[in-house]
Amino acid sequence: SLQCENIDSLSPRNQGSAIHGVSETIVGVLGGGQLGRMLCQAASQMAVKVITLDPVEYCPACSLSYQHYVGRFDDGDAVREFAQRCEVLTIEIEHVDAITLGKLEEQGVDCQPKPSTIRIIQDKYNQKVHFSHHEIPLPDFIKIDDLESVEDASNLFGFPMMLKSRRQAYDGRGNAVAYHKDEISSAVAALGGYERGLYAERWTSFTKELSVIVARGRDGSILCYPVVETIHKDSICQIVEAPADIPENIKKLSVSIAKRAVGSLEGAGVFAVELFLTHDGQVLLNEVAPRPHNSGHHTIESCYTSQYEQHLRAVIGLTLGDTSMKTPAAIMYNILGEDEGEKGFYLAHQLMKRALSVPGASIHWYGKPEMRKLRKMGHITIVGPSRKNVKKCFNLMLNREDVECS
Ligand code: ATP
Ligand code: MG
Ligand code: MG
């Protein structure tokens, strides 16, 4: 039984069993969302034991993890207790208690990637400062403390201007755009005011958004997945096309920036590097996620080694797997909540049923207990012999003609 009242252990399975797969290492994952769930799916194939910590009892990972612990991953006591149950600690979300992780590391707990990396990344302003010190190309940015500094930023950057929350950001929920001077105060208010900790970014009118998943093993070996294009709707990733339809030199540039960015951070695991491709062929870094990422879901069906298996291999210290695509093309579509409650479930299920008759389509449903508008509820990946083919199948699934076939 557990000492700490901040954490509860649920559904232990195979306890005491000596049977283990490719590694005896028990991997502890902070967070039990869809990324945690897909880590568990990869782990089950290798018979690797993954345990999860999430405040939600019926979170997406709960039924697939070896043991699920209910507790907050931003609560030091819960994280400390959880760390005793595993041999290596990793994350599926960066909004964890990184200070406690740092202390645990000093006491000999194995955290991958390193707590120092999570600390840099979880504050998006600090992340930008870090990458600018490493001469990684970025959109211009400036810290915002008060009305004066936000007005200075707007004089410098013009409009539209992107305001971002430094912490707790995901799915664009920490972003607000001011299109005009009059909108500054409402944008600041929408993010929770200056006290929330904000910064401003120069608007980047990109032609495409790109992403590179980079894997680093414990021995320092680095492998990159093919560059993909991510298409966002209202700041939320909706479609991923793999490989990205961009010239070879842009691919090379993207991979080299991604490798340099990850090279400036410590620890093993997979990292996602989000990039902007500008009109004049520049590639700028948007942000890095120190974990598996939405832009790598497609790797489950389209690559020899999925990003989830790769992350486990990396943090355990196994050889990294082949990152190349085994299908010429893939397209991933996020199933975002279209409506609250039953109506939303109905629409999502209709889409999944249509996907069943689409060649090359695989359905992933995360089993989230509640449906909310724009919430990531699942995804569908379509693989096929060419970009044109997967787009055709994609349009068939969505009953629409408007995604152009190149
Ligand atoms: P994620 O879910 O990827 O963690 P997030 O909430 O951290 O997202 P960002 O990645 O900073 O948010 O921004 C979300 C999206 O908003 C970007 O993918 C891009 O479409 C748009 N965006 C962000 N920064 C800028 C910018 N400076 N100029 C123009 N568009 C931007
Ligand atoms: Mg982010
Ligand atoms: Mg992002």
Automatic annotation (TrEMBL):
EC number: 4.1.1.21
Entry keyword ATP-binding: yes
Catalytic activity reported: 5-amino-1-(5-phospho-D-ribosyl)imidazole-4-carboxylate + H(+) = 5-amino-1-(5-phospho-beta-D-ribosyl)imidazole + CO2
The keyword ATP-binding appears for this protein: yes
Any one of the GO BP annotations: 'de novo' IMP biosynthetic process
Superkingdom field: Eukaryota
Associated pathway: Purine metabolism; IMP biosynthesis via de novo pathway; 5-amino-1-(5-phospho-D-ribosyl)imidazole-4-carboxylate from 5-amino-1-(5-phospho-D-ribosyl)imidazole (carboxylase route): step 1/1
GO cellular component: chloroplast
GO molecular function: ATP binding; metal ion binding; phosphoribosylaminoimidazole carboxylase activity
Residues in ATP-grasp domain copies: 128-316
Keywords recorded for this protein, A-Z: ATP-binding, Decarboxylase, Lyase, Nucleotide-binding, Purine biosynthesis
Assigned protein family: In the C-terminal section; belongs to the AIR carboxylase family. Class I subfamily.
UniProt-recorded name of the protein: phosphoribosylaminoimidazole carboxylase
UniProt organism field: Platanthera zijinensis
Part of the intact protein present: 62 to 467 of 639
